[in-house]
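Batch 3, record 17
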Amino acid sequence: MDLMNLISKTLIPAAEEMTLSYVTAVVITGLTVVFLGLVILILFVWAFGKIFTRKNSRPAQPKPAAAPTPKPAAPVAAAKPVTDDNQDEVIAVIAAAVAAMGESEGKTYKLKSVKAVKNKPSRSAWSLAGIQNDTTPF
Amino acid sequence: MSEVFRIFADTIKDLAMSSGIANMGWKDAVMILISFVFMYLAIVKQFEPLLLLPISFGMFLTNLPEVGMYHPELWANAADIDFGQVLHEGGLLDILYLGVKLQIYPPIIFLGIGTMTDFGPLIANPKSFLLGAAAQAGIFLPFIGAAVLGFSAAECGSIAIIGGADGPTAIYVSSRLLSGGGYKISTGTIALAAYTYMALVPVIQPPIMKLLTTKKERAIKMPQLRTVSKTEKIIFPVAVTLIVALLVPSAAPLVGMLMLGNIIKESGVCARLVDTAQNALMNIITIFLGVSVGATTQADKILNLEFAKVIILGVIAFAVGTACGVLFGKLMCKATGGKVNPLIGSAGVSAVPMAARVSQKVGAQTDPTNFLLMNAMGPNVAGVIGSAVAAGILLSII
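Prediction for the assembled complex:
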């Protein structure tokens, strides 16, 4: 298993001469062994990653039938979905926020139009703002 | 009265003759000025100040004439160092330098780094190891350049390791390879070049990254990484140590200590040890390492053509490492049908976390909603393991 002992026995005697073949051998050997070592690590990490992912995604064992639960109380009214009805209010809130920011800088803004973004972003606006906030210091 | 005056005059004369001013040569003065430049870079430009400042101050102390804090003659016959003589006759910096000479400080620094490293991104995306390996071309290809410029095998290996972008590894390798004495360069020379270039990663890398990638490639968004379980994070350091130590035994001191630090962090049961390793111990060793490595930078090792060659080869090594990482990233991009952003390849040089930050920054310049930081941390920490393995290989074959 000690690959390096074998390689070093071959290469060390040539080191004093620094021939082209020695230098080339060092470069090729070095890159090959680094890749070999890291590929072994990839295979290992990939394999135990698979095992753990499968273990975590395995469905939970069905629980034994529980005693009948009392009927829940009357359902709570669902939260009101964001529809066109309250879009004007959202725009008003955003416009007010922009106006407040502008006021502190001594500027005034005029709201001309509000357009929906064509390409849906990969993350929600809140998530994007959070990541932006976290990565800006870097 | 005249007798008193004569004794007074003789004493003053003796004091003047033994003072630093009388014994300062032009080379000492130049070296002191160079140390001021490095202090300026560390304090004002904040180039890796934690290490560059102690190194530059060590350089300043060692070049002050007649101070006697470091004696290069004690280390000249490196094959047969009389450690008893070092302890009896050595100055403060000689004693501290024992930690470098006996290869104690770099592995302890690795222990501290281990307690600060999260291998989660690498475990979640193990393909990152390939990018960490590709960037190690920055170690092996400059070996050819150093050989062409007439350096010996040990010097070539010491110069080449600068491309690993890892200060403790560079010091570890060069202190072992250059232990035979009679070399034109020193560990201090290598450390200075390595830390200066590590600080310049945000300047050196972006032009190469932009040159080798298209705007479309830079805008590729990578998926969020899966959550890695605690058990995986605990198994990882044991497995890496086992595999690397069996394959390249000479890399074991660095990789072993890195993984020891990591397992005490991930175990979650050694909070006190983690706190000490990543704060008090790390800080003490950083000061000792920096000041004693700086002490080896004496005029005869710096004011020569060889140092200029090391500086040139060092920047080539960094550029080659970055370019190979990005090119391998492009290859992975093609192989995966455009799922890998090649910019994360440059993070394969192990300057942690600077190189990953550069990937994030260059990606965000193309598309501000592109967040590559976590994806780049995988190749970045793989680069630390890769450069430690490469160091082991250099030590084995040279």
